[in-house]
Predict the 3D structure of the following.
Amino acid sequence: MSLTMDDRNGAIWLDGQLVPWRESRLHVLTHALHYGSAVFEGERIYDGRVFRLSAHSARLIRSARLLDYDLPWSREEIDEATRAVVKANQLTSGYVRPIAWRGSEVMGVSAIGTTVHLAIAPWAQEGRLSVLAREAGISMTMAKYRRPSPDMAPGQAKVAGLYIVCGIEKDRALKAGFDDALMLDWEGRIAESTGANIFLVIDGKLVTPKPENFLDGITRRAVMGMARKRGWTVEERAVMPAELADASEVFLCGSAAEIVPVGSIDQHHYQAGPIAKTLMADFQKLVREPDCEGFGEATHLMTEAPPLAA
Ligand SMILES: Cc1ncc(COP(=O)(O)O)c(C=O)c1O
């Protein structure tokens, strides 16, 4: 079987139709390819259903709004299209990548005059967490680039262009023998990894950076909900790098990653401890609950996106 992403059997939902996988193509003069204007999501299928589907579809629409464009499909239509394409590919577990982008009618920095497209591609892919990572945790290093300030970029949006720095830092980490990189924000506070949010356990409390201008993850919200349900204290606040020395456990969380213990961040070493392990087990139950497709704790995505900053 081919391993490349473009040479597979199956169907991709593309602009309202199920299109054979290999025929889901676009033109080289597409605005999003040149100027990073695509918005996307990463979702996971558990027992045939997409965890927090409505929250992801809503975030996709919000991300586009934050770039000043509207998707020509409603949240409900995107949910329905996702269910249809997952079913068409006969997937009971895997990953889903919805992506919306501005097309090829005109070429220039301005996207005015382009049409908006949407594709939804699901494929079989298990959680990224290897047995080793589950036991020993992943190894991380500090990133050099930082997450931008709110007056530099719309950091709450999941926009292709904002992933440039994540990609550079992920590659830099992998080439240096680490699994991932930890990024600071514009003020030197801990922000997130290149594709997931971060939690620290300090003095028995769960501590996570307040997402001032980076992705307020749907999994992050689920983790906070699970922890509070267990009666654990969760603090959302500014977290400084010096506090890495005070943590007894560190873990990442995100749709693709699920919950991943961190074994080290440069000179700091951690155990995959009881709090991360309990949350990992709780999470596997949560993603299979009957109402798992809804918004859950991701209430921040229930309201419409604010208008583009003036
Ligand atoms: C940069 C970044 N931060 C955080 C997250 C976690 O977000 P979520 O839990 O909504 O998948 C992701 C994954 O989408 C990400 O790419």
